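Purpose: get a first structural picture of the assembly so the mutagenesis plan has something to point at.
Setup: two entries, given in the order below. No constraints added.
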Amino acid sequence: MRHLAPRTALELFKVFAALALQGFGGVLPVAQRELVEKRQWLTREEFVEMLSVGQVLPGPNVVNVALMIGDRFFGLRGAFAALAGMLALPLVIVLLLAALYAEFASVPAVAGALRGMGAVAAGLIAAMAAKLAPALLNNPLGRVICGVGVLGTVLMIFALRWPMAWVVIGWGGALCLLAWWRLGTKP
Amino acid sequence: MSAPDIGALFLHCLAMSMLAVGGAVAVAPELHRSLVLERGWLSEAQFSASIALAQAAPGPNLLFVPVLGYTAAGLPGALAALAGILIPSTTVALAATRWGFKRREHRGVRAFMAGMAPVTLGLLAATALVLMRPQAGSVWAWMLAIGTAALTLRTKINPVWLIAVGAGVGAFGGV
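Result (structure tokens, whole complex):
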């Protein structure tokens, strides 16, 4: 049950700013802890529901969730307060890092450090993909077609370097049509 | 970079915004294709470093997009890229929020989620591969990547420590 709510749009801004600054490698887990467990602005069910809607929509999930939560409390004003809170300080920090990198990119140790960080970033994103994989087991497309869907996407994007729009609209669209048909034939 | 180039960057991010199904990181291979391979605005190393920096800093993952813009064209590039990636999806999200809640069980919405799930996973896998390109010849880099993935899946370790290890190994010439 939800008991509490932010009092002003400024409070919304501050809370989202604070949680964005704690979010290393993704903000969603922090958002759930802070908004559901600590502040009780949302119930767990409401949060999961917003997340699933956020995933259907195009655009970054966290941004969509921030917009929805802000919109719920203060309408458009709240949506922009939450979005600005989530982006403002992290943007300044990451651009400062980028400026430092640009300054020292030619130093061999810096270039090496960034290559090492790039390898770790690749590992983090591979883990993100692996965490999504179990959800495919219950996909109405079936496991074989899901596997073909994943490998086909990697082949077209990474090996053939086709433009993403073609792949998402063509390949993704075909998979969506197949899912539509499967959902209709199953009870 | 000239003003028309920054305009092109903005328009490209604008289009990517609507294609970012399942998170911002999924558009990384496309940005790599257009910014590195097609236009040559960034080197392989700069591209990979930009994403690594965004992962090392706090905040949403989508901030790698303005960092790429910054590395290519300074502050105007960063703002153009951020505005581009945010404006369309934000508009759609606000418009569709009230609509989406009531129709989550709708066959069309379920078919969209089911059909896009494998594509999202494939895009993430492609992103990981693209990020390895500058250091693909290094055994240490592969050990770092595979070790990171394994630790992330099995423990709740904060990614900051893993990134610090990667930076350390790289700084001492390992990668």
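Chain B touches chain A through 110 residues (CB under 8 Å).
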